[in-house]
Design a protein that fits this description.
single chain; alpha+beta; 434 Repressor (Amino-terminal Domain); Cyanate Lyase, Chain: A, domain 2; 2 domains; two-stranded antiparallel sheet
Length: 160
Amino acid sequence: MKREELTEKILDIKREKGWTWKHITTEIGGMSDVMIVGALLGQMKLVKPLAEKAAALFGLSEVEKRMLNEVPYRGSQMPPTDPLLYRFFEMVMVNGPAWKALIEEEFGDGIMSAIDFDFQMERLANPKGDRVQFKLSGKFLPYKYYGAEQGVPEYGFKES
């Protein structure tokens, strides 16, 4: 079985049972809903105790359970073709240079981690149409200036 086939099996069971992602993530627990759904969709791995819970919930075989615990090949085609995913890509293409400039001005020469990262999503009621609110929090990782000599900072933190 390939990982994509396991994802389809999980989605088939979800549909057959009429389960919501909220139900599934509550049953598995142990970490962020985004991480659990991402793992079930093949983009993240579940640690062994959570893979065990997911396997029991979905009635998966031992091999399928182990597959949930493997580090996956992550990502997809760029730009994404799904309209919702494309809007995220568009936000980064349009706003990314400004975000980059503001982050570098505040923190220095580095990046925002997508590994040491938190994410929250909330639905905001609005009379003109409900809104999706995201809160992203990633650790700042300064670039290391290899071979830095005396008087040259070793890392790209904001200089005073």
